[in-house]
Amino acid sequence: MIEFYHVHKQYVKDQFALSDISLSINKGEFVFLTGASGAGKTTLLKLIFKEELPSRGQILIDSININLIPLKLLYQLRRSIGIVFQDFKLLDKRTVYENVAIPLVVKGTRKVLIDKMVTNALSLVGLIHRRNYIPSHISGGEQQRVAIARAIVGNPKIIIADEPTGNLDTELSIEVFKTFERINANGITVLIATHDNHLMEQFPKRVVKLEKGRLLSDGKIERM
Amino acid sequence: MNLLKTTIINAVKNILRNKLISFLSFGIIAFTLLIFGIFNYITYSLEVFTDGFSKNIKAIFYFKEDAKQAEVELLVNKLKEGLLVENVIFTSKNQAETDFSRQFPELEYILSEFKESPFPSSIEVEFKHEGYTLDTKILAFVKDIEKLHIVESKQVNIDWARKIIAFKKFISVVGVFLSLILIFVSVFIIFNVIKINIFYRKEEINVLKLVGATDWYIKFPFVLEGAFLGFFGSLMAGGLLFVTVKLFPIYSAFMFNIVKGMIDFKTIPGSLFIKLIVLGTAIGLFSSYFSAKQFLKN
Predict the structure, then answer these.
(1) What is the distance of C-alpha A127 from the center of its chain?
(2) A109 and B209 in contact by Cβ < 8 A?
(3) Does B6 contact chain A (CB < 8 Å)?
(4) Strand duo B151-156 + B58-63: pairing
(5) What is the predicted pLDDT for the residue at A128?
(6) Range of the domain at A144
(7) B210 and A83: CB-CB below 8 Å?
(8) I need a labelling partner for A202 at 20 to 30 A (CA). Which of A147, B5, B46, B282 fits?
């Protein structure tokens, strides 16, 4: 599903954000991407939805080399990926409902269907009662869950989440991870960047660890 | 349908969000098109005027005192056979005196001081109007007649028509030049209005891109916004032109009564309104399209 072949990413000369990354994530897999701050987690995620381009190497999604996707057709790749951004990227002039509906609106989905899908997504993250609020009027944790709802609303093939529990307390974080587990149970590939070891220990999944842009380890951790 | 509705709503929201700058660009377009419309309208009015004038080209040849009746008659008959000539009317000295008395009865006392008519006999030649009425053929013809020894002087209204046509051309050139400058200003303003809106909505655009919006989905509200500004600007210009044209005869009646009589300032051709709307919308559409294209590249 997601394949990295000797991928390098360099922002500044002689400094690699990512160096010679090769990995493969299968369809329906649940993977944690971990590492200290600056390890290259966010960069790796950005390469998948082509917000950044690799300096070297190839990235394949569903066997398609995304380097070769022209800008005009990039939307097709992005419609197949649900993204939860580290900074949420919620639009403050729109309500929670409208924010979650964006991926469906841009696809031209019918209003009746949008209503149904947004309601489902908001129910899944427990925010149906906040549908008419604007993001700045809800808590950080709730904002994060709105971002998750927006990522899952369009039934993407892949969910990418960058530190999705960064602003949540442990209890809520576990809830969010359980939500991702439920999504994953439907066959959706989930890739979560986190540095929360405690949480990862509670969810025995494959863990890809980065250090200074290099792949340090790749394997499953056991529940504690 | 849902997508189109959202796009139109977004475009209107953009306009309302930046009221001042939108109003400025709207005003500039309206002003530009008003100037364009005024020059077009003047050109159109002069055209109608000169068209009527050119269909009525006449030359009057005045004969010398010693011109013999037989010579004049021979000339009249020859002229009537001419290809350019529609009609020839001979006016005798006495007829000219009678005409004068009828037209200016208050000046009749002057004539009483003369023993015989002080006016020369003359012929009025009406030319055919088959497209060549302003052609050099008429001028050559007039020159030939003027050379005859029985002809004292001539009067041709062709010179007037030529002057008006030259004036019309001048107005057209000035109009085109001014319009081009103002169109450039409008394009520049709308281009920058859209650019500001794009920067203002940069974050939103980024999110839309990341969740899979097509380029056109993002661009279209901006292009539509430009088209709206152009369209409504042109409607405003049309309205102002209508008011200007309605008011001008009242002003000209005080200032130059003669102009009012010569040109019909009341009718604005429908094609001019259509021209204004098409031009305004096109200015808005293209300048916003290029702005969106340039600033949404990355």
Answers:
(1) 19
(2) no
(3) yes
(4) antiparallel
(5) 93
(6) 2-220
(7) yes
(8) A147
Q: What average pLDDT does the segment A5-9 reach? A: 93
Does A224 have pLDDT greater than 50?
no
Residues of the domain holding B75: 57-156
**Span B5-57, pLDDT tens digits:** 777 887 787 777 777 777 877 888 888 888 888 888 887 877 777 666 666 77
Q: With CB atoms and an 8 Å threshold, state whether A91 touches B215.
A: no
pTM for this predicted structure: 0.68
Say how many domains are in chain B: 2
Q: Is A105 on the interface with B (CB under 8 A)?
A: yes
A79 touches chain B (CB under 8 A): yes
| Structure-derived torsion over alpha carbons of residues A112, A118, A120, A123, reported in degrees to the nearest 10 | -140
Give the end of a domain, one of B104, B133, B156: B156
> For chain A, what's the residue count?
224
> Distance between CA atoms of A161 and A86, rounded to whole angstroms?
8
Check whether residue B187 and residue B277 sit in a common domain: yes
C-beta separation of B256 from B263 below 8 A: no
B83 touches chain A (CB under 8 A): no
- Let me know whether B145 and B166 are in one domain: no
User: Which residue among B156, B181, B215 closes a domain?
Assistant: B156
Contacts of A105 in chain B (CB under 8 A): 2-3, 6
ipTM: 0.88
CA of B286 vs chain A CAs: smallest distance (Å)? 20
Considering only the beta carbons, identify the residue of A49, A106, A109 that sits closest to B213.
A106
